[in-house]
Amino acid sequence: MLTSSVGYGIPPADFASGFTPWEDQEFMSSLFLPQQQDPIYSSNNNSGSDNEPNQPASNDSNNELVVVDERRKRRMISNRESARRSRMRKERHLQDLRNQMNRMKIENQDLANRFAFINHSNQVLRRDNDRLRYESSSLRRRLSDIRRTLIFRQLQSLSSSSVSTTTSVPFKTVGEQLHSLIA
């Protein structure tokens, strides 16, 4: 929790500059320059007289100031160390992200190369498939033409032979003859 340190003679923390107050040069210089502090006076006076001015506090209050000052210094050192560890963690995290980005760039390039190869292979196969379909269609047409020609020739030969052999062979109709040729 961030608390104001005004009570200790330290200006409140301002993180707007992006640096912690302990890293800010002005703060560091104000920390080590002597500051004018009001003396601490004891509230219970042993003399019992209200006319006498208050005397500075005893060694106990000085010890309290030293303890508070030591705590403040330890807290500053601890905060500096914590900020250093935080910066190191952030740097490691950024390095991990950079490494991950580089690995993903390499993987992305590999995938792009594989995609280009597959796409090229696909185009080659489509071209071959189109060529084979065209050849198949051409061959079917030729086969159909050859069959028609054969049927026509057989019909011609049958019709010429049927005239000469009508008396010796039973008569078959042209449809029957075609059916036997096709089958």
Automatic annotation (TrEMBL):
GO cellular component: nucleus
InterPro entries documented for this protein: bZIP, bZIP_plant_GBF1, bZIP_sf
Compartments (UniProt record): Nucleus
Matching Gene3D superfamilies: 1.20.5.170
One example GO MF annotation: DNA-binding transcription factor activity
Protein name: BZIP domain-containing protein
PANTHER family from the UniProt entry: BZIP TRANSCRIPTION FACTOR 44, OS03G0770000 PROTEIN
UniProt domain BZIP: residue ranges: 69-132
Region Disordered: start-end pairs: 37-64, 72-91
Keyword set, alphabetical order: DNA-binding, Nucleus, Transcription, Transcription regulation
Superkingdom of the source species: Eukaryota
SMART domains in the cross-refs: BRLZ (SM00338)
Pfam families with a match to the protein in the record: bZIP_1 (PF00170)
GO terms for biological process, alphabetical: positive regulation of DNA-templated transcription
